[in-house]
Amino acid sequence: MSEQDSNAAATDKKSTKKVGLILLLVILAAAVGIYMYQQRSMSIDGWSEDLDAAMVQAKQEKRPVVVFFVSNTPGPIARHIKNKVITKPGNKKALQEGKFVKVLVSVDSGLKCEVARKYKLTDLPTLIAFGPLGNEYNRLEGANAKNEVGFRNEVLKPKK
After folding, report:
1. Beta strands 65-71 and 126-130, pairing class
2. Is the pLDDT of residue 36 over 80?
């Protein structure tokens, strides 16, 4: 092998290493981007994020309230409840027909904040329905709100 061939082979190895490094950096950047996207705060169209204002509004308008307490870094269960339970057409209709004031509240995942203590949260996510005067009448904690019909029957309907 000539010196020129040897230099060409070395240059090819360096180019291959550079391409590999660039590819690795692109993959790493994509992974970080996906992680950050998944960790962003959650929002639901038509849902307030101000619990105190929602409770005042409910009392003034004599309307029930449904509160969806989630971790400040919502996990897969909270996202499932949002995407496969709350926002399904039947539940959107039930919330509208029931004239619910709807609130999404981000809570410290350690449950050591004032809101967690005030509402006796022991797990996240938690769904709580309140009457117009602030009296709790239904609660589902953790993964218990798994389906569309269960949400309507176990959260939105007052117990008799």
Report:
1. antiparallel
2. no
Summary mean pLDDT of the chain? 85
d(CA 80, CA 78): 5
Q: Which of 27-36, 51-60, 76-85, 151-160: highest mean pLDDT?
A: 51-60
The mean per-residue pLDDT over the stretch 42-62 comes to 93
DSSP characters for 32-87?
A: HHHHHHHHSPP--TT-BS-HHHHHHHHHHHT--EEEEEEESS--HHHHHHIIIIIT
Residue 84, Ramachandran bin (φ over 0: left; ψ between -120 and 50: alpha; else beta): alpha
Q: Could you tell me the two tokens for 137?
A: 């009448």
Higher local confidence (pLDDT), 128 or 38: 128
* Backbone conformation region of residue 38, classed left if phi is above 0, alpha if psi is from -120 to 50, else beta: alpha
**In this structure, are residues 89 and 117 in contact, taking their beta carbons and an 8 Å threshold?**
no
CA distance 35 to 38: 5
